[in-house]
Amino acid sequence: MVKTIYYTEPTDDVVQSAHQDFQLQDDFRWLRTKPAERCWSWMIRGGAKAFAYLYTYGWRRAKIVGQAKLQPYQNQGYFVYGNHTQPVNDVFMPFLIGQAQHFYALAAPANWGIPIIGLLLSYGGALPVGNSLHQTAQLLKAVQTVSRHQGHVFIYPEAHVWPNYTEIRPFPDTSFRFPIKNQRPAFAMTTTYQKPRWGKKPRLTVFIDGPFIPDHNLSLKKQQSWLHDQIQAAMVSRARLSNYEAIKYIQERR
C-alpha cells in the first residue's frame, strides 16, 4: 500500500524535527580553518564520501547522469541546485558528485541541534542559513570565501525535504544571488524515481545539467531571475522522467 502525505501548501514542512527551534549561538563560526580543525574536516569528509559510496550506489542503487559536465570546473568554485526529496542521500551524494574536500552545502540551523551529528556538520562542509541579519551576513561572507577557494556549494532551494516527491515545488530566486555575486557557474541536480526491478523501493536516477551562466550585461536582479528560471526549467523537465510514486502527496484545501 502506497503511503500518503497530506499538505496544505507546497512550502509546508512535512517532516518534523525535534530540533526545529534550535538557535545558533551568537559566536558561531561558519568556517573551520584552524590547523586541527582542517585535520578533522579532512577525516570527516573522507568518511562521508566512503559512506556515500555504500549508501548512494549500494542501498539506494542510484545512477548519476551528466557528472562529466562538472569536470571542467573542478578547480574553481561552482554552485549546484537540487530538488530536496531524499533525507539521507541528499546529504551524502554530493560528496560523490563534486570533490569531497571542496564540498559545502547550505542547511537549516535545526540540524546543529542534533546531538553529536550537529557538532560535526561544520567540519563536513555544512553552512547554516542565518536566523538574523547578522548571521545572514556571516553566511554571505562564508560562501564568498569558499567560492574563491574552489568550493562546490550545494543548495536545495525548495528548503524542506519531501521524501520521494516526484515533482518540483516552486521556490524563490533568493539563493540564486550566490553564483552571480561570486561570478561562478551554476548547475541543476535533479533526483528522479524509476520503478524498481524488485521490491517497493524506487531506483534513483540523478541528472546534472548546466552550466548556467547569465549574461553579465544584464542587471544583477535580471541575472538572478534568469538563473532561477533556467534551473527551475531544467529540473521540471528532468522530473517528468520519474515513472514511479512511492509516496502519494495530496493537497488539502483550506
Distinctive features:
single chain; 254 residues; alpha/beta; Glycerol-3-phosphate (1)-acyltransferase; seven-stranded mixed β-sheet; two-stranded parallel sheet; 19% strand; globular
Describe, in plain words, how this protein is organized in 3D.
The chain is an alpha/beta fold and 254 residues long. It has a single domain (3-12, 31-251), classed as Glycerol-3-phosphate (1)-acyltransferase, CATH 3.40.1130.10. The protein is built from seven helices and nine strands, in the order βαββααβαβαβαββαβ. It has helices spanning 35-59, 89-92, 94-97, 117-120, 133-148, 177-182, 220-239, and strands at residues 3-7, 63-65, 78-82, 103-107, 126-128, 152-155, 186-194, 203-212, 247-251. The strands form two sheets. The protein has a seven-stranded mixed sheet, with helices on both faces. A two-stranded parallel ribbon has the order 1-9. Strand 7 (186-194) and strand 8 form a beta hairpin. It is globular, with a radius of gyration of 18 Å. The model has no long low-confidence stretch (mean pLDDT 93).
